[in-house]
Design goal:
The structure is a homodimer. Chain A folds into 2 domains: about 150 residues, Aspartate Aminotransferase, domain 1, CATH 3.90.1150; about 230 residues, Aspartate Aminotransferase, domain 2, CATH 3.40.640.10. Chain A has 16 helices and 14 strands. In chain A, the strands form 4 sheets. Chain A has a 7-stranded mixed β-sheet, sandwiched between helices. In chain A, strands 10-14-13 form a 3-stranded antiparallel β-sheet, with helices on one face. In chain A, strand 6, helix 11 and strand 7 form a beta-alpha-beta unit. The longest helix of chain A has 27 residues. Chains A and B meet through helix 1, helix 3, helix 4, helix 7 and helix 8 of A and helix 1, helix 3, helix 4, helix 7 and helix 8 of B.
Chain lengths: ~475, ~475
């Protein structure tokens, strides 16, 4: 039942906000699925929804941390089995000592397990482990080391991005530079917090690289319109483009941010998803430069794909001074975190496991590496299969070194009056493939794209790609 | 290292927002603890941090859902054991069939387990279970039944409250009525979203009841100042007061909201925490009235206390019409939820278990009831112990039927120049008891209070209460 009261005026920013990844195309797909049609959901980077298995090690540990009494029981079972083996059970049917002691160690360090609120920033032992992971990844020591007090555990990276944007946008003239195309979390959040979206355009034909000239043009245009640009977002590897940013582009961004006193928000959630190219973190590239940097990572992507558990972290480097207050930026992030109490503990534990893989030589290590390499090799193979299919589609080009979980081909040839939304909807109706039209992410005027997450099982791709090629060549010839 | 860039102007709302529950007193407590002093953290309703054990049933199921391969293994172990019992193992060392099949059932209904993003609203099978729970709790059938499409799973109730407030506050003249004292999530969120906090005062000396006259006075005052009041928050059982709202007060609220076209935000996270009084849900009291109602529940409180897992739900009844848009309020909540992708899955699973306790007669049922009753009986006993201590403290009065996890005594006698903040800080220094001063929640001018969460183990309370009494009578006589 609806209220019989007069209509209510709601927050205009939320009313006007757009979020295409979960928009009309996936809604149509949901309806088709309810009607019994086969759907291949490539609209979201949601690997486990497409059959990717969770990593054995992560789940073994998480499961024990959630039910600590099992640890002692596992030890009892093992002891009994060693004395009097049941022929039906193999050694592999028992949880390794390494997993048992890792779980015990987590419980001891947490002191309260998963059922209590943690510190607002997240468990301190996890923040220490994250700092260590960052230092090892980037070769940082001494002064350059990550500071565990500048790390916040969050409910996924989206949560972290929103907090930073909410703090930085102080009024309706404050602008945030975002790449076009972009992950719509950014445009939606900037809208929600009442700021100005300032677009900049990576060079698609040049593998989505960034040039200082393009960044300056974007900034000048915004400033000429009275916008006070505070920060720029970089997504590397890219979403939706999937492209890996090269060292030169990263250096251009840092020099540009330094020259114009901007903060950098580096969305690096796909740092483990590079197939051939090299990931360079902004923290590493920054070196001793004191540009404020907010870098985001997440358990949702990589080779683990634990999207549902909503875990991630924000690392702050060179926190900005806060005007007119004796609080620093970290205090403000802490206050903001306090209102949400803490990030969920299962997500925190998985974040810990992400930054602390099983040690070399330990019992779970071999299987861990095997599972990891299988997932990454399959992702690479799927991306390659789809790229090859593009070669057979009239007027389709796809740029950039492959990273993340996405390809973002440009549709150079569409029938008159049709755009990429029409194309994606028709593709869905005909083949069951759910993709997102380029306009959902933003794109250069007059161009058309789509984003496909290269996640479906290989056999399914092998089946649907010929259908897509046939559909495509028919559609564009209409 | 800090940035060498010029100071940045940040969001003033976040800069000015206050959040006392995690403010200077708990910060001082943390320092004392680091220095090796004993601290009794009664500043937060965080039961498992104070030794309360998680419910066996919840964790057994969650643990299996997180590692599904264990289900088959448990069956194998059990079969083997039944054939050839190991004398060292008892039947109780095996997971019951009921737990195994509940876990399988959850996995089957979820279809993607805990590792994938769920629908933005949360798993549909959980929303169906919540609707059933609400209908049973409130005796609703037919037209009055809860609608699973109007239920949203959230990362704790705080998340739900923030979403509703963010949507309702459309500009800086929009006001939200909140009780004084209140849980600072509300004042902080209203501040964060740029609205106006409109205070109303439950009648402390009359067990914190609400009267229509008080509500009208509060509204009139706000309207005379140009404030456009959109909704009122009710917290029942109360936080920080711990008081249970009576039927008459609830009726007054509904009639008042109806007369003035306000929405009701009913924070009912303590609905299982009633010791002697009766909890009446707003959904039940509403009956066929079409006042918009947003009711919140959570896994953090009750007898389960799963704070760290951040689970909860929002149920919307009579969603308001949205002015100037063909989207309805549910669509807007959905869009908002989409930007966060989904609530964390472990929290969702625990929410499912909260609304679906083990069936009577099932193997886990007896233990479940035993654990439930033990926790509730202990909470009641602790509240009673603390209330008795108040009787020995000069000038301390505590009103209301006991509910939630808090007592909120009034300190009628304080030395000249001292307030409740001074009192709580001195209490901490002297006894290690961490409480929150009444001013952290708001209180009638000229009064002083504190909030204590009645969670510490009974032996610890028995030890500290005499120290508190001694401290108190010395402090007020200064």
């Amino acid at each position: 039942m609806s209220s019989s009261q007069p209509p209510v005026i709601v927050n205009r920013n939320i009313l006007e906000m757009e979020y295409a990844v979960r928009g009309p195309i996936p809604q149509r797909a949901a309806t088709m699925q309810q009607q019994g049609q086969n759907i291949i959901p490539c609209n979201i980077g949601n690997p486990q929804a497409l059959g990717q298995s969770p990593l054995t090690y992560y789940r073994q540990v998480l499961s024990l941390v959630e039910e600590p009494s099992k640890i002692a029981r596992e030890r009892t079972l093992k002891d009994l089995f060693e004395e009097t083996p049941y022929s039906e059970l193999k050694d592999d049917d028992f949880i390794s000592d390494y997993v048992l002691s890792t779980s015990e160690d987590i419980l001891a360090k947490s002191s309260t397990g998963t059922g209590a609120y943690t510190e607002s920033k997240g468990f301190r032992f996890i923040r220490l482990a994250i700092a260590k992971f960052i230092n090892q990844r980037d070769g940082h020591t001494g002064e350059m080391s990550a500071n565990p007090e500048h790390i916040f555990l969050t409910d996924g990276a989206s949560d972290a991005a929103k907090r930073v944007l909410n703090l930085l946008i102080a009024d309706e003239n404050d602008g945030i530079m975002i790449p076009i195309p972009q992950y719509p979390l950014y445009s939606a959040s900037i809208k929600m917090f009442g700021g100005v979206q300032v677009n900049y355009y990576p060079d698609e034909d040049n593998d989505w690289t960034l040039s200082r000239a393009e960044l300056e043009t974007s900034l000048e245009k915004a400033q000429s319109e009275g916008v006070n640009v505070k920060a720029m977002v970089v997504i590397n590897p890219g979403n939706p483009t999937g492209a890996i940013l090269d060292a030169q582009s990263i250096r251009e961004v840092i020099d540009f941010a330094k020259a114009h006193h901007l903060a950098i928000i580096a969305d690096e959630v796909y740092q483990d998803n590079v197939y051939g190219g090299e990931f360079i973190s902004f923290a590493k590239a920054l070196g001793a430069d004191t540009v404020p940097l907010f870098s985001l990572h997440s358990i949702s992507k990589g080779f683990f794909g634990e999207c549902g558990h909503r875990g991630g972290y924000l690392e702050v480097r060179n926190p900005p001074q806060v005007a007119g207050a004796n609080l620093n930026f970290i205090d403000l992030l802490l206050k903001q975190a306090s209102v949400s109490l803490c990030a969920n503990t299962a997500g925190q534990i998985l974040t810990y496991l992400m930054v602390s893989p099983p040690e070399q030589g330990s019992r779970p290590h071999a299987l861990f590496i095997q599972e990891k390499e299988k997932v990454l090799a399959e992702l690479h193979r799927k991306a390659t299969m789809i790229r090859s299919a593009f070669n057979q589609m009239d007027g389709v080009e796809c740029f950039g070194k492959t990273g993340a979980m996405y390809l973002f081909p440009r549709l150079n040839k569409l029938p008159a009056g049709k755009n990429d939304y029409d194309y994606c909807m028709a593709l869905l109706e005909e083949t069951g493939l759910v993709t997102v039209n380029g306009s959902g992410f933003g794109q250069k005027e007059g161009t058309h794209h789509l984003r496909i997450a290269f996640l479906p099982p290989i056999e399914l791709l092998a089946e649907v790609l010929p259908q897509w090629i046939a559909f495509h060549n028919r559609f564009v010839a209409m």
